[in-house]
Amino acid sequence: MSKAKIKVLGVHELVTVDVNTETNTVVLEGSELSANKIQLDSPITGTVFGTLLNYRGALEGLGETVNEKPYSAPPIAPILYIKPANTFNRNGGAIPMPEGLVALEIGAALGIVIGKQASRVSEEAALDYVAGYTVVNDVSVPHESVYRPAVQHKSRDGFCPVGPWIVDRDAVANPDNLAVRVFINDELRQENTTSNLIRPVSQLLANVTDYMTLSAGDVLLVGIPEEAPHAKTGDNVRVEIEGIGSLENSIVDEKEREWGKQNENSTGSLWRFYS
């Protein structure tokens, strides 16, 4: 068992619990329950920052295009973007397929949850500023450009499922050596490891906080592995990160999700655990 923090749907406060990251279960009121059988909300309380091209394969996959205009060279610093609050989604929540699209890109990402204000931290001290880690599905509309802010591709409603919990930092021996897998309809579609990061966790935190302060509750995504799989309407998507847990969501037509959200908001007790 590992210590983790969860947020029950409809309740603002985070609660500390014991979780089993291998079976994706949580202990509540003396019972061990599947995360998919509990109404858990996204545990995020701050801003989510994504990182582009931080997996070696993702950068290598661009080939010689990195030497073309407008930059004419590989990036020398982290390339960041924001997943705003409208994108936040939860384990078990539906991911909306926008009208006119047939597929979405599934972005499996380790989320570094900041525990205290971090500014100009050193690599040696970087992990002291980490509260824990979570699983993030950085959903995107498939697109080719990496040089322009992809707001319309990455910032749509529901495009950032997070959870099901935040595993405490001390429960993860080495965040730079975690298996990352994506399953679509229970079929393994992607497998990688955080050992392939260009900037490991400590270095990424040091590089980012050199010019930008991160606050408690913020989440910094380490990046998305190359060849991110695509999912279509009706698909069930599961992102697994070793030692952290599994995040599961379905893809639905955006009109269906709007109807579901209205019904979800009408459920009874705020402390209702079971879905």
Automatic annotation (TrEMBL):
**One Pfam family from the UniProt entry?**
FAA_hydrolase
Q: Which SUPFAM superfamilies match?
A: FAH
**Per UniProt, which keywords does this protein have?**
Isomerase, Lyase, Metal-binding
User: In Gene Ontology terms, what is one molecular function of this protein?
Assistant: metal ion binding
Cross-referenced InterPro entries: Fumarylacetoacetase-like_C, Fumarylacetoacetase_C_sf, HPA_isomer/decarb_N
All copies of the Fumarylacetoacetase-like C-terminal domain together span 47-252
Q: What is its EC number?
A: 4.1.1.68, 5.3.3.-
Native source species:
Sporosarcina limicola
Q: What is this protein called?
A: 5-oxopent-3-ene-1,2,5-tricarboxylate decarboxylase/2-hydroxyhepta-2,4-diene-1,7-dioate isomerase
